[in-house]
Design goal:
Layout (H helix, E strand, L loop, with lengths): L1 H11 L4 H14 L8 E6 L1 H7 L8 H12 L4 E4 L10 H8 L4 E5 L1 E2 L2 E2 L10 E4 L3 E2 L5 E4 L2 E4 L2 E4 L1 H6 L9 E2 L11 E4 H5 L12 E6 L8 E7 L11 E5 H14 L3 E2 L2 H18 L3 H20 L2 E2 L3 H32 L8 H30 L5 E4 L5 E4 L13 H8 L9 H6 L3 E5 L3 E10 L2 E11 L2 H11 L1
Parallel strand pairs: 1-12, 1-13, 2-3, 2-13, 3-6, 16-17
Antiparallel strand pairs: 4-5, 7-8, 8-11, 9-10, 14-15, 18-19, 18-22, 20-21, 21-22
Helix pairs in contact: 1-9, 2-10, 4-5, 9-11, 10-11, 11-12
Amino acid sequence: MAAIVLFGIGGFLGLFAPLDHLVWDAWTRWIPSQKNNQVVLVAIDERSLTKLGRLGSWDRRVYGTVVKNLLEAGVRGVGVDVLFPETTPQDAQIAAIFQNPKVVLANATLYGEQVAQNPNFSKARYGAILVNSSLERVVRQYQTGYMLGATLTPSLPQALFGTGPVDTRSQYIRYAGSPGQSFSQLSFLDVLESNVRYGNLQDATVLIGVTAAGLERDQLLTPYLQGDPLPLISGDPLPMSGVEVQANILHTLQIGSFTEISVGLAVILALALMIFFALYASSLWWMLLSSAGVLLLSAGLHRFGMVLPTGALVLAAPMGFALYSYLALRDVSSQLAERLRQLGEGSASGAAQVFQHLALLRKVDHRLELEREQLNLLIHHVDQPLFLVDLAGVVQVSNPSAQTILQAGQVLGDKLQNRLGLKPGEFDFDELLESEGQLELFTSEGVLSLNVVRQNGKPRAVVGMFTKGSRMTQVVVQQGQQ
């Protein structure tokens, strides 16, 4: 009982969350989300850095030109995942573009402090580019709003999406694909130089941000693994650019967030499953099938946009089976202890009791072996044919004298009909089992005596003995005895 209570408390306290994350990561990698052509990345890639120089040294007007080109292409909105806290002489020339209602600039915190907003863009719309990372720094969840100072600020994807509640509730991201494979990407340099087909951008939502490798502060760890190992085996997480993570959050908002089954309900179901296996577990295979069934259910729900906290449910059957095994072992130990007490072997406890149990088992095994030897000697040195038949009528044991007539594995009724010349219907094995006494059958070769062995009023076996001689001789002997 204490184990079940501790299991439930651990579930409600979130002790199984790491296993929940492990399973969710696996389904994210192996069950792809639907593709989304309405989100496009404008990537500040290696080509752009090579042509324009170090990111911090750019003339800010290049951002204005890129945003202007995108707006003219008919995009639905533009999110700029780049911070502009300092003022520059070029700000006045791009302020009108940045303050367009379709444009959202980035806001964030740095070392716990909110990054200052550029006063030249005071009328611009802002969105937080924060994410929720786990203890191992993997990004699995997001919020539609974050507290920046005392203000609840919508996230950058939420500001671009424009509908739905803004709150601090954590939700799972529906990743569209592995790093670099999620969305269509255009080079920042190509958009700057108008070397793109703007017809492909119409009605799309565009995010601008750094994708170039080597800028670690703009890289976030994801559920995707290097080398793509087996689903439930951990590996080194693949990094994804921050702007691509923001694009995946926008993708999640557009196709619909996961529906999450509460941890409390999952723990209650797990407790019920654990109790069932603790009481009725009878096979290791059932335990394995139960855990596999939970994983299959979790995968199916994930495919249709639902998250099932799987950790407690996966462990419930093994824990219940272990508890069942412990209780069964405890009962056997108690029975052995009682038998020791009856035999006067003492009442030791702990390790001494275990050794006494083993000693008792050795004694019992030795006694059984002696009884087997004595029984074999007795049977094999009797001249008359003897045999033992189970309740199905199959001969299980026969001594050498009986093996000329009946051998182990043969059916008693068939052999009697064929070998001893009995008439059809003269012998019925089922009637023999229902009889109370001894049955004697006169055959062409002798008299067959059959005795039903009973225990607690129920038949357990049939013992047979064959006396050789002709049918007429046996009848004369029987009359003479009368």
